[in-house]
Amino acid sequence: MRKSKTSLIFQAAIDVFSEKGFDKATMDDIAARANVAKGTIYYHFKSKEELFLFLVEEGVEMLRDGVESKLLDDMHPREKIELILREQISFFGQYRDFCVILLRESWGAEDRQLEFRKMIRSYMSLIEGVVREGIEADTFHSVNAENAGSALFGMAAIASLHILLGKGEYDEEQLFSDLKRMALAGLVK
Questions:
Q1: Same domain assignment for residues 112 and 167
Q2: Considering its fold, how many domains does the chain have in total?
Q3: 52 shares its domain with 41
Q4: DSSP character for 169?
């Protein structure tokens, strides 16, 4: 499949899953939105679930790679947390529909939801590492790094989703400023 068709299917799937949710979305809907034959999608993905998990994996990988590419070893842990918050907020602003999918579809006990949470967990482990670094440098309070990682991810994710679903203006700078103040007030000694 040409890259352009892959991109069309990818974007169409994000649009349809975002609008209808996983359960109500159909491969017919995605094929129609991408303007490709349904068989073209099935050639590359065995099921709607496989396509969905591919989307999530690609999206979380984009988020993680984007953050990791900007983290520098010589940055102070506080600067790293600020960068993570800024990049996550920016990512959700840029990929609004993916944000909706990520947060709406991640809860539950279905296999896809459990797999989905594993993918998100890989990103949160990056945050945990920065928190541990800050604790070891005696910059951050001694907190459970896993709890802090999920809290920082969740704070930015839910605040972003609230704005995106409420159709309000997504002011990344204001959101970053508010969340940075709240997050670092709780972490920094």
A1: yes
A2: 2
A3: no
A4: -
pLDDT tens per residue across span 107-141: 766 777 778 788 888 899 999 999 999 999 999 99
Entry pTM: 0.84
* Whether 136 and 161 share a structural domain: yes
Same domain, 142 and 81: yes
- Measure the CA angle with vertex 164, ends 173 and 62; round to 5°: 75
Q: How far is CA 11 from CA 83, 144, 158, in A?
A: 27, 37, 23
The angle formed by the CA atoms of residues 68, 151 and 79, to the nearest 5 degrees, is 40
What's the CATH number where 37 sits?
1.10.10.60
The CATH number that applies at residue 154 is: 1.10.357.10
Q: Are residues 38 and 55 in the same domain?
A: no
Whole-angstrom distance, CA of residue 131 vs CA of residue 4: 40
DSSP 97-139: HHHHHHHHSS-SSSHHHHHHHHHHHHHHHHHHHHHHHHHHTT-
CA distance 126 to 142: 18
Residue with the two structure tokens 């993905």: 45
Question: pLDDT (tens digit, 9 = 90+) per residue, 23-67?
Answer: 899 999 999 999 999 998 998 889 998 999 888 888 899 999 999
